[in-house]
Amino acid sequence: SFHLVPSLNALENVMLPLELAARDDAREAAMQLIRTVGLGERWSHYPAQLSGGEKQRVAIARAFATQPAVLFADEPTGNLDAKTGATIMDLMFELNRDSSTTLVLVTHDQALAERCDRVLSLDAGLLISDSKAAA
Q1: Helix, strand or coil, per DSSP, at residue 44
Q2: Phi, psi (rounded to 5 degrees) for 30
């Protein structure tokens, strides 16, 4: 469900953490993020009016809005078709790069894991491998 507030439109959902952080530029910063995730024409739509992929992009914009030091994403492509999933992950990696956020992904998707700088593999809660991207 991406935990969007149903009574707020896409822009307002992204503005929410910025307003809670008392950012004077909350509206402008949120609008820039909405454009970055490709929803510039859909900013005024409410969650019920958005597709699943659009909702996820709003949630991603909101997650990156406050430029967190660490962002956790649990199976970010789990409910998406392959094309939308690839688009979402490209967007997440782009925002991650631009904001210098540490992105922690939890995934069963080996191809997605291989795009990461470091991969920790677990089995029944035990660390079985720790690999880093080739330099």
Answers
A1: coil
A2: -65, -40
Tokens standing for residue 33: 């993020």
CA distance 21 to 23: 6
Question: Residue type at 18?
Answer: L
- Compute the average pLDDT of residues 105-133: 89
Amino acid in position 58:
V
pLDDT of residue 133: 64
Please give the Cα distance from 77 to 64 (Å, whole number).
17
CA gap 91, 87 in Å, rounded: 6
pTM to 2 decimals?
0.83
Q: Is the dihedral of CA 51, 2, 94, 115 positive or negative?
A: negative
Closest CA relative to residue 107, chosen from 88, 52, 13, 53: 88
- Is 59 in contact with 4 (CB distance < 8 Å)? yes
